[in-house]
Q: What sequence folds into this?
């Protein structure tokens, strides 16, 4: 297959189906080798549109599925020229169409591709421009399908739609679609049970990443913490262990966090624990968030968690949350109308409050409340056709 013109011909709809399938299979294997594969496809960008064309072949779904797997790997290469060609080939709209088709046999592969291509805010916005017939918003539609899972399409599990939701909620408009009320409720509450979904780290981690991003929308904090959503138990339960708590410590604590069985285990994945802590840290930015965490006795949970946590970076992140919770006197010197610490002016010594100490003379915590920006994740399809189990949800991870 040295002649690219011949390869393009083999990928055309008019080509012999057997030859077309063999060509796609060859390209799939090549796309799964990051070094050689990326060099080959970067040097032969004209191949990408024909590959995407095969993805749309409803007559031969097995071949289309293999083409989608190639596209998953291509999007994982993180090369601007490859991403550009895939976008120009209308692969994003094609993926949304496949995911929202109730009987599509390659919906999971389309979801994996969409999770990869939406890493940047620029490409994530392209998803928001897609339309789903009969639906108001594409993000709420994808979230609805994610929640239904195989009940919507028996051929798919839709775990990787969690990565898509994680990525697109980098954008404020997407976060609004997730959290806006429609009819009798909104999609956001339906995502919460998946924070404890043991069967798939991809699903669990993507949802927690999505929640983490949504916590950047501070105008929703009171709603997130109020009775309609009651987000704190969902963020804290994965961090709770089997330790017995004092009765005084549990006074006001959500019932779900009390009296854990001896076999209760904490979240094993470092990246997921990081996103849980970052969610709490974002909620600390607003006065209602800080007060809610004090009222619901978050400190005793984090005290035991901090003792258990083996990762030093996460220990520090936990300390940042605790420092805010156990310093109620800071509210007397936070002079912004809404109590949002992101609006507080920095002092000369770098502290995040206009007064470097509280009324009792105790030093107030430094301004460590901003944890970066909403972010996303990428996945890769191996040459042996096994889904990669993401070990670090923060970092793109093309595989060998």
A:
């Amino acid at each position: 297959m040295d002649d690219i013109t011949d390869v393009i011909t083999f990928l055309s709809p008019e080509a012999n189906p057997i030859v077309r399938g063999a060509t796609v299979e060859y390209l799939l294997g090549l796309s799964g080798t990051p070094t050689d594969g990326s060099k080959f496809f970067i040097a032969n960008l004209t191949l990408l549109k024909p590959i995407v064309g095969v993805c749309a072949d409803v007559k031969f779904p097995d071949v289309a599925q293999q083409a989608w797997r190639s596209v998953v790997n291509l999007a994982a290469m993180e090369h601007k020229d490859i991403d550009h060609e895939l976008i120009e080939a209308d692969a994003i709209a094609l993926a949304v169409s496949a995911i929202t088709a109730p009987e599509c046999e390659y919906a999971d592969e389309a979801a994996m591709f969409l999770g990869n291509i939406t890493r940047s805010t620029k490409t994530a916005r392209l998803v928001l421009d897609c339309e789903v017939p009969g639906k108001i918003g594409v993000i709420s539609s994808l979230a609805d399908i994610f929640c239904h899972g195989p009940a919507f399409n028996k051929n798919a599990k839709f775990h990787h739609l969690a990565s898509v939701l994680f990525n697109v909620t980098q954008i404020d408009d997407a976060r609004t679609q997730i959290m806006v009320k429609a009819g009798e409720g909104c999609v956001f509450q339906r995502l919460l049970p998946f924070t404890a979904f043991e069967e798939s780290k991809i699903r669990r981690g993507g949802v927690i990443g999505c929640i983490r991003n949504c916590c950047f929308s501070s105008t929703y904090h009171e709603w997130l913490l109020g009775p309609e959503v009651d987000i704190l138990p969902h963020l804290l339960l994965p961090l709770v262990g089997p330790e017995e708590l004092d009765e005084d410590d549990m006074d006001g604590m959500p019932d779900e966090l009390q009296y854990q069985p001896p076999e209760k285990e904490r979240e094993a994945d470092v990246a997921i624990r990081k996103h849980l802590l970052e969610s709490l840290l974002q909620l600390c930015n607003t006065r209602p968030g800080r007060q809610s965490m004090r009222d619901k006795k978050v400190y005793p949970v984090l005290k035991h968690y901090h003792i258990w946590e083996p990762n030093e970076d996460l220990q520090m992140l936990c300390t940042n949350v605790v420092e805010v919770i156990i310093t109620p006197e800071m509210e007397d010197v936070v002079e912004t109308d809404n109590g949002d610490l992101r609006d507080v002016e920095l002092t000369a010594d770098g502290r995040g409050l206009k007064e470097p100490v509280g009324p009792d003379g105790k030093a107030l915590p430094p301004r460590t409340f901003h944890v970066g920006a909403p972010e996303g994740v990428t996945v890769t399809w191996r040459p042996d056709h096994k889904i990669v189990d993401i070990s670090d949800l923060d970092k793109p991870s093309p595989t060998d």
Confidence is low (pLDDT under 50) at residues 346-371, 380-400. The radius of gyration is 24 Å.
